[in-house]
Structure formats: C-alpha cells, structure tokens
Amino acid sequence: MNSTHLADLTSAVADLVVTATDGLIDTATARQSARTFADYGMSSLSFLRLIDALEITYGVEIDLETDLDAMRTVASIVDYLTARGVR
C-alpha cells in the first residue's frame, strides 16, 4: 500500500473513531498511537459502535475474542485492515 492510500485509510479510521465517540476523542487524539482508546475514555458502547462501523465500511468481520488487541488504536486498526486486504 502506498503512503497516500495509507494516509487516507488512517484518516478514515480516525473519522470513524470521532463519530463512534460522539467527538469525545477528536481526530488528532485518535491518530496518536501512544495511548489506547480506553486511555482516552472510550466507553464500551462507543467501542461497539466503532466495531460495527468498521465492519460495515470495510466489509470485514471482527471477532472480539481473537481480534480485540488489534482494535486499541487507529494505527493497530489500520494494520489489521491492511492485513485483510483493505486498500
């Protein structure tokens, strides 16, 4: 994946985080990979809304038992999606 597509995917995932959290986590904060969404106060409901949005938007099925660690930051989600062929 070239850097433009990666940047676009990162922006799109960050936007989904902002929407899922009703703005509690803003775009700049979402893009920071040093801390997890939980560190920023994401609720379990917001987390489930994010998972639902990712599944609908990218056509992936996320298993919360096996894929949970990949859903902690925008960077980890982007890695997860690109590993599954999302461009």
From TrEMBL:
Residues of the signal peptide:
none
Coiled-coil portions: none
Q: What is this protein called?
A: Acyl carrier protein
Per the UniProt record, one Pfam family is: PP-binding
Q: Which residues form the Carrier domain?
A: 7-85
Q: Which organism is it from?
A: Nocardia cyriacigeorgica
In the UniProt record, does the keyword Phosphoprotein occur?
A: yes
Give the record's keywords alphabetically.
Answer: Phosphopantetheine, Phosphoprotein
